[in-house]
Specification:
single chain; alpha/beta; Rossmann fold; 8-stranded mixed β-sheet; 10 helices; 43% helix; globular
Length: 260
């Protein structure tokens, strides 16, 4: 595990959410890139999307997910060994360590049976881990249930990612409102419209304006469609290797400079 003498009492939590296909995992990868290159480390990234692929976008392979560990704990805990000790041992093994940041993958959703004890232990361990990092990034599915499951009740910034569509903007509003139902305290909720064309349609601008007026979302801005990102993902190259001179990286850098 990464250690650093310049870390707060507990990590600042940055969460990314949005409906499938909006590019939220791409934004999570670029957020990791930004924090590492700015020296705002150590960082722990948690891929909490059931369709996990954050590891692919940052050039890492996954051997064990937290879902695997939860399943294993239900049947394989050695006699005489406390379940918490067993789970903590395997979670530490599941952390993928690399320069500047670590990665954990939630993995498969819960199957039949009760996961209450496993999730309680997992939340306690994550809470302990957070004290060793400066930032905790959580790449969520749209439902964001993992925020509650991991007991992440105080979010510094929630990036709600939409594609340039009316349905995407409406879904972003629902996600923003969902935090209240989940009793998650969020300091900043930012709407990010991703993969926008050169000229944003007037109808979409009107929808964005309406959502901002009716919710507690702030408009973070638009990120243009990027051929550089498209080619990196197509060629299965890490987004961490994108040049700082790339237009989309410069736009993202200014965006994070403004809001973090």
């Amino acid at each position: 595990m990464i250690t650093n003498t310049h870390i707060p009492e507990t990590a600042q939590i940055l969460a990314v959410a949005g409906k499938g296909g909006t590019g939220k995992t791409t934004l999570s990868a670029l957020l990791i890139k930004y924090l590492v290159e700015k020296g705002l480390t150590p960082v722990l990234a948690v891929d909490a999307d059931a369709n996990e692929n954050l590891n692919e976008l940052v050039g890492l392979s996954v051997k064990t997910s937290l879902g695997d560990i939860r399943e294993r704990m239900k049947t394989d805990t050695p006699p005489g060994m406390a379940k918490r000790d067993y789970m903590e041992m395997y979670i530490n093994q599941a952390i993928i360590e690399t320069k500047g940041f670590d990665l954990m993958v939630m993995g498969q959703p819960e199957g039949p049976g009760c996961y209450c004890m496993a999730n309680t232990i997992l939340a306690q361990i994550i809470e302990g881990l957070a004290r060793s990092y400066r930032y905790l990034i959580v790449d969520n599915e749209a439902g964001m249930e993992h925020l509650s499951r991991l007991n992440l009740r105080k979010i510094h910034t929630l990036f709600v990612v939409s594609d340039p569509s009316i349905r995407g903007i409406v879904t972003a509003a629902r996600i923003a409102n969902l935090t209240k139902a989940l009793k998650v305290e969020v300091r900043n909720k930012l709407l990010v419209v991703n993969r926008v064309p050169k000229d944003l349609p007037a109808a979409l601008e009107d929808q964005i304006r309406e959502v901002i007026q009716k919710t507690d979302l702030l408009f973070g801005g638009c990120i243009p469609a990027s051929e550089d990102i498209f080619q990196s993902e197509l060629q299965q190259k890490s987004l961490l290797k994108l040049s700082a001179k790339t237009e989309v990286v410069q736009i993202i850098t200014r965006f994070f400079d403004k809001f973090l």
